[in-house]
């Protein structure tokens, strides 16, 4: 290994493929791959840059004491809750994420879910399987209200598509503002209960932080319309699943489409699998054809910036747990120390 070549370690899944398209990085660094805590511990002693390809992995915390030369971690995910443990948060290691890669795909997925609810597609599929010809009326999407919880890039993309479909868009975020071009009126998260009753669709697109964990419990569901549907493409732990089950079983709300869960994969015996009015999907709302090359391309761009001493894209504020930015801003940029 040349003294001028830094070590880049890739933390990959136990059986998944390696990230594609890292050749530009390989020309400028020594790349090592780790698939276990043991191999990660060995690699970390010399690692300056860590690419966490397996974004659900908690292995880094177990071997953090070995990260003596680590300067920068890039997570191939928009959410960083799985890796933002206290020791990392208090360190000088810079953390970046994949903000922006999944925005449009998730927004399209959410709009599809809204249309599926409004147009009764699940009933249509069921009737087709039974070869039953049953005429029904469906709902307009135009004029219904979408309340988007989370004002980052994903929430904004959802807001734009919902608005294009004729929906009234509202949002909940860390900071209130009277008007936003993508999200309409934005209410502070502390006043969530005041706006839940306006929504026909409550769409969670927020990161998991201390402020959002358990945000949707029995009190929140009690404030929603009985005709409202919940869509969660954020993080499972934002929703109290026991409270959600109670709200669905009592018909306190009309339905839910869930792409994320507190425990993933969702256990086979979990009641959400068979509950009427519920759609379960396996954390796939952002996974479009070509997502892996897109994630790699972002890391390659950031690595080349790092080698040139330029500001990095998507720097996470470790105290907040996400990339901060003004309205419409897609990237936070910062130089490594």
UniProtKB/TrEMBL annotation:
Superkingdom of the organism of origin: Bacteria
Instruction: Kindly list the residue ranges recorded as spanning the membrane.
Output: none
Domain D-isomer specific 2-hydroxyacid dehydrogenase NAD-binding, residue spans: 111-285
Question: Which Pfam families does the record associate with it?
Answer: 2-Hacid_dh_C
What is the name of this protein? D-2-hydroxyacid dehydrogenase
Which PROSITE patterns does its entry note?
D_2_HYDROXYACID_DH_3
- Known CDD domains for this protein? 2-Hacid_dh_1
Q: Which GO terms describe its molecular function?
A: NAD binding; oxidoreductase activity, acting on the CH-OH group of donors, NAD or NADP as acceptor
Q: Which Gene3D superfamilies match?
A: NAD(P)-binding Rossmann-like Domain
Keywords on record: NAD, Oxidoreductase
